[in-house]
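On clarity, I found the account of how folds are encoded harder to follow than it need be. Since the whole study asks how a given chain folds, the encoding of that fold should be made plain. For illustration, here is how one protein appears when written out as sequence plus structure tokens:
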Amino acid sequence: MTRLHKPGAQAAPKTLTELMGQALTMEREAVARYNELADMMETANNPEVAALFRKMAGYEQIHVNQILADMGWADDVVVPRQSGFWNTPESPEVVPIEEMHYLMHPWHALQLALAAEQRAEAFFAELAGTAASEAVRQAAEEMRQEEAEHVTMVRAWLDKVPKPDDDWADDPDPPRYTD
């Protein structure tokens, strides 16, 4: 399932400022979502997965800080989201909230992070391939390479954690909801 814009549907960013503005939006959304997922895992008493999501939020915050520094923007700069750069309500790097489970293991969290990083890498690869200028192409390619590094990092983490048994979601004492 592609989360990128459909070719011809909407033009890619034409200027470096436009590209970096949308990259900033994307990275900020990733930071917010990883922190939200960490909060969810803490609430579910799953501190190991919460810590992993906090670590991912930290890596995404580094990207936010780098974009702000490179562009000379203040920390509180607000960049309006531009439609058409991705065709879903959330940016490519955001882990879908509906894929969360309170009993998930680190392996599951890493699978979600890997998919998000792969979408981000593909997104920037497409932008690099359709860029209107060399400056935009180079910047998109640099961001693609950073996302590729994240993909490699997450894959290395995945090699260190066991895949859970098929019955990982069985809960002998499931939460009870009352009105």
